[in-house]
Specification:
Oligomer: single chain
Structural class: alpha/beta
Number of helices: 23
Number of strands: 16
Number of domains: 2
Distance between the termini: 93 Å
């Protein structure tokens, strides 16, 4: 319904059946969220579209908090969709919410709390103008930083407003409203709550418990109608700050988020978020490559050289997938190919998207980020390789390389040119059936499948690959000698020590 078709004055609002005083004056935001959530549950609608992997864990806890009319906090590592969930709460608000036009605190037409609106209704009565808030208008978000002040959140005296209006500084009309009063009749979200200074967190006590705030210098309590939600990273409790205990006690529910628990969930998230459709050419991403990209994140989360407290964000596979596709796109543009099809080797071109998203432990720092990431990628390729080629014998391919064969796969060659070189490897293309590759497939698809097989063999030390992506036979390591002959002088000295009572 367009707002121009809605009541435009207080008198019209009173006469409209959908905006009766009984349904607006005494219905809080938390009641509104609860009522609309109940309607969605009865219709079995999706509560948070686009949120994957939380249906049986996080979402039921949020539903319970909303049904209980509680303020709540989402506690989880970076990249766990905390901010997205908080913003998605607006879907539980009414489509149009009337307020007194021009009011900074979006006053309820039937129950105004600011002096300006009370005087306006006294003067104009039913002719008082009405405006409407959309769902997005009713969501106010603040990223907590150490420099946030009480004035930012609650408000302060505004001498400029007093001078322009010719008002006394003691008048309510000279108040400058902070973000919290401006979120009246809506949702107020604070991201990274522990970063908020302790004395500023104290300013939230009253609104959390009594439902009102007091602006500096005015003996006036504003009874706000607001739902407060927060997010925090567990790392913040020790690294940068903490939530003061009395505030934590006032938060109704502490809901813990988590990363995708399965590869399938990760694939769904990355497929939804990554920008892979480049428009000018057909883009095709092999399923095995999607799985490898996702496995990189899972492997990194398990690696002891990666800091578990910091976590490995879901942004890692998203950014990696975009870079992998971009490298394939660059190759297709260079060779005027119509199909953009990324290969496993493109993962190494995406290292900048991985190294910047990992916090390393001391051991990892000693090894270096590039070394750790390459090892993580190698392990991820090996795990997915086993899913496809676990029962496949690669002995014939290994023998070809052992007899001196080498091959190089690089972006400087077209897919057709690379394919001709790969055909020289005996038994290679006969082993690609687990990937569904067919002789009639485009060169890009066949080269990508063959490279996956070769990279998987490298990950299991059956082949070696140089930094220039040249595949060669695996070097045979010399067997470790069980006994090394001692120098004659040392042997004589040892014997003399033994005769005198043994070695100490």
């Amino acid at each position: 319904m367009a707002t121009r078709n809605l009541p435009q004055t207080l008198g019209e609002l009173r006469a409209h059946k959908d905006f009766a005083e009984t349904s607006i004056a005494h219905r809080s935001v938390k009641d509104e969220l609860r009522d609309n959530l109940i309607a969605k549950l009865r219709k079995r609608e999706t509560i948070f579209p686009g949120i994957v992997g939380y249906d049986d864990t996080v979402v039921p806890q949020i539903v319970n908090a909303v049904l209980s009319r509680q303020n709540f906090i989402l506690l989880g590592l970076r990249g766990q969709a905390k901010s997205r969930i908080l913003r998605a709460l607006t879907a539980l608000l009414d489509e149009h919410t009337p307020y007194i036009a021009g009011c900074e605190v979006r006053d309820n037409p039937y129950h105004p709390i600011c002096k300006r609106c009370r005087e306006l209704i006294t003067q104009r009565g039913d002719a008082s103008p009405i405006a409407y808030l959309s769902r997005s208008d009713r969501y106010v978000e603040k990223l907590a930083t150490p420099d946030v002040t009480i004035a930012d959140l609650i408000g302060d005296i505004d001498p400029i407003k007093a001078a322009r209006g010719g008002e006394d500084l003691s008048s309510e009309l000279t108040m400058h409203y902070g973000l919290l009063p401006r979120a009246n009749r809506g949702i107020f979200a604070i991201n990274e709550l522990p970063d908020l200074a302790g004395k500023i967190q104290v300013a939230l006590f009253n609104i959390m418990q009594e439902g009102d705030v007091q602006i500096k210098g005015y003996p006036v309590r504003l009874e706000l109608d607001v739902s407060l939600v927060f997010s925090a990273n567990p790392e913040d409790y020790t690294a940068r700050g903490k939530i003061v205990t009395p505030l934590k006690d006032r938060i109704g529910s502490e809901i813990r988020t988590h990363y995708a628990e399965t590869i399938e969930e990760g694939l769904a998230i990355t497929g939804q978020e990554a920008w892979t459709d480049r428009g000018h050419a057909k883009t095709e991403i092999p399923q095995y490559l999607r799985e490898i990209v996702e496995q990189v994140a899972f492997t990194a989360r398990e690696d002891k050289r990666v800091d578990k407290r910091s976590g490995v964000s879901q942004r890692l596979p998203i950014a990696t997938m975009e870079l992998v596709v971009s490298n394939a796109e660059r190759r297709a543009l260079l060779h005027n190919e119509s199909l953009v099809l990324p290969r496993v080797g493109d993962l190494y071109a995406a290292l900048p998207g991985i190294t910047g998203k990992l916090e390393l432990e001391y051991e990892g720092e000693l090894r270096g980020a590039d070394t750790v990431v390459k090892e993580v990628v190698r392990v991820a390729i090996g795990k997915i390789f086993d899913n496809y080629f676990g029962d496949t014998s690669t002995q014939q391919i290994e023998e070809w390389f052992n007899l001196g064969g080498t091959t190089k796969i690089e972006d400087g060659k077209s897919a057709a040119g690379t394919l001709e070189e790969l055909r020289e490897i005996q038994g290679l293309f006969e082993k690609l059936s687990p990937l569904g590759a067919k002789p009639s497939d485009p060169p890009e698809r066949l080269v990508a499948a063959a490279e996956f097989l070769l990279e998987g063999m490298c990950s299991h030390r059956r082949l070696s690959r140089s930094e220039e992506r040249t595949f060669v036979a695996q070097k045979k390591t010399q067997p470790r000698q069980e006994h090394v002959a001692m120098e004659p002088e040392f042997e004589q000295w040892q014997n003399r020590r033994s005769r005198r009572g043994g070695l100490n």
